[in-house]
Amino acid sequence: MDTHTVSKIIKKISDVIPYTGSFVGVDIGSSSIKIVQLSMIDNDIVLETYGEISNTPYDVGQDPGKTSDANPAIRSAELSDLLHEVDAQSRRCGVAVPLSESFINVIDLPKRDPEQMLRLVPSEVQKFIPISVDKLMIDWYPVKEEESSVFDVLVPNKQTEAHFQKVIVVAVNNDSAYRLGQIAKDSRLTPAFFEIEMFSAARACIHTTETPALLLDLGASSTKAYILNEHRVPVDARVIPVGGASLTQEIGKARSLDSLVAERVKCEHGLSAGSEVRTVIEPALAPIWTYVEQMFEEQKKRESKPIERVFLAGGGSYMPGIVELVASKLSLPVELIRAFDRTKGPIILEHALREDGPRFAVAVGLALRGLGR
Ligand SMILES: Nc1ncnc2c1ncn2[C@@H]1O[C@H](COP(=O)(O)OP(=O)(O)OP(=O)(O)O)[C@@H](O)[C@H]1O
Ligand SMILES: [Mg+2]
Questions:
Q1: Which residue ranges form the domains of the chain, and what is each CATH number?
Q2: N or C: which end of the chain has fewer CB within 10 A?
Q3: Where are the beta strands (DSSP E) in the chain?
């Protein structure tokens, strides 16, 4: 396979692509599209505009509590409306790839220089992904960054004792990237890169502590769980089949409510003490704790530092009582991602930006990468 098919679909937090001008992060979620436009002015990351648009009115005939598959023509009409509505002028953008459309695996590979890795990684990827590597965008990075600079040098006719390294390999189906790219292009945007949403969320999660953390993105279609190491680099990820839409459905079924009412009850009362629907929501969230426990076990096996805190992102993080429930289930401190903390916006919006941080984490992370941050 040609080396050019190995593409940069991930970006480590520490990497920098300098770009001058404004840049838009585009997160096409299953319930809404979010965009964030940032620019660099002097040394400040300036928030120029941001906004969200619900998929519901564009998906005529869909239930409001249900998620919808992205039909490219509909999504690009929606994205165009959003860009217009918030007056986002920049044409350069980065687009998030849903974790559910990505393959992620940790594999042991011999240490080779980057050129040789370009040949080695695709052949290894083919062993665990049932799609031809020609149809994939592939990228990788070593789990322990400090080890990455020591490569084995291959000398012809001389046997080299291989040194192995743990490498995280990620791949995205070209069709997914094409569909997302088409949505952006039909909205007159030019995608500079595609990035799996976990890397964008991790970049937006640069909080003060330098310890491993769990990041839970409580979205509409699923919950995404990521383990970030002490450098905020994702080292494990899971898609957990529990999302805001399924919670709404469960509430509707259990209480015989239509989906609009069930959605309202969920958002207003959720898991708060004395909430009638708590007895429906809490059991429905159980798979999250099972998956997370498995991830914590894996973390122990990696002999990595223990996870010391939890960050929440996504719309589900606004559910009354969720912070307390996660804290008690995992016995760790929990906080919402403050994705706009590194950006400079109007003082008058300070409160709104604090509120909106968890929902816009992915879009902020994309825009930060676009600015080389
Ligand atoms: N106050 C609230 N309480 C409970 N759930 C909420 C609240 N506010 C929003 N939500 C839920 O958050 C979900 C939307 O979150 P988000 O915008 O992160 O999803 P998405 O990015 O579109 O979905 P996905 O990431 O799964 O593609 C919806 O299911 C919505 O019901
Ligand atoms: Mg999302």
A1: 3-102+172-207+337-370 (3.30.420.40), 210-336 (3.30.420.40)
A2: N
A3: 22-28, 32-41, 44-54, 92-97, 102-110, 136-142, 164-173, 190-196, 213-218, 223-228, 234-240, 309-313, 334-336, 343-344
